[in-house]
Amino acid sequence: MFPRLLVLAALAACLSSCVTSRVGVEVTRFHKLPPKGQGETFKILNIKRGATLALEHEHYLSLMIQGFEKYGWRHAPDNPDYRIAIEYDVFDGGIQRGYSSVWGQTSPGSTTHHSGTLSSYSGGYNSVDYSGTSYTPATYGVVGMVPTATQMWVSYMLIMVKDRKGNTVLEAKNVSSGPTSSLNVVLPKIIEAFFQDFPGVSGKTMNYIKPLSL
Known about the structure:
Number of helices: 3
Low-confidence stretches: 3-20
Number of strands: 9
Radius of gyration: 30 Å
Shape: elongated
Structural class: alpha+beta
Mean pLDDT: 83
């Protein structure tokens, strides 16, 4: 089981904003891994998960297996070179308060009538009367602000990898904060972000933006 302090550290580092068309994921990896795997075997075990369905949970595991295999490892549960522990969940991230712009009409349209006489002299005096109408359209913009309150949720995945000797070779914190509590929406994006640029620079925190459809 992961220490709760690790979870708290992950939450403290989470992103503070998210929109419904995308999700932001903050990924921090500490590791002793080469840039590419060389066929080493691995097994995923010691899984602590949130209140997910069995098939949903299997889907997340399959995404993790695919990611490590793309890195260059081979999934082989019997006597593996590396053992991988995972914890994931989602919980209340509090209320995010702010203000939203109110759009409306900032000025009315107007109609102006023009009339008069045009005169000219070219071999004789000439004049012509004219009349017409011009229209200035209405303008629109911000006419005020209204307070907003959005329920935020924190989704996270913690990953630890140990070698045959029990030495830790990778620890990772992957956190996202946003207005949805649905792990099936956010967690695949967290996994995708974890494997982006994997294994990356040890100790460096990366922020990724992933497309999201709620």
